[in-house]
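User: Structure please.
Assistant: Input sequence and predicted structure:
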Amino acid sequence: MELTLEDFIKQERTAMNDSMEHLKKELSKIRAGKANPSMLDGLMVDYYGTPTPISQVANVNSPDSKTIAIQPWEKGMLANIEQAIFKANLGLTPMNDGEFVRITIPPLTEERRKNLVKQVKAVGEETKIALRLTRQKMMDAVKKEVKNGYPEDEGKKKEEQIQNLLKGYGTEVDKLTDAKEKDIMSI
């Protein structure tokens, strides 16, 4: 069964929404000087030979704005968690006190802030590229349908809708990246 043009556009709109969710997730991983448990999202810990997300082997929280506390559910996991943090090369130094692994978040230097802003802009640009690629797929599908007998004026309306959709997502990307930039640059 072949997809109709409307179904294809809905499917690609879902892909655009997924790109936006990915952007939000990536931006949450970029630290802005404050301790945030989401900084460790995606960190995999060796759990009996299987790479496992840290959130599935320990309780990760932030007791204050400068500290992340990780309390493993099994004491034997302390060393593995510590190693995973070192291997992830996050620029953070874990401290193991036998009960918890604590990470103290150092204040950001001006140079580090600028590098983080560059990183934010790069993630935003990657998202815009993904959105433009999705738009191109949608435009190609409309053009193909017009060639196959779809009314030309309806095709033009669809193309306009798709272009406006991209503009809306582009504006949203800019808002998210600008907000993250302000967050990083504020002391």
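The first strand starts at residue 44 and ends at 47.
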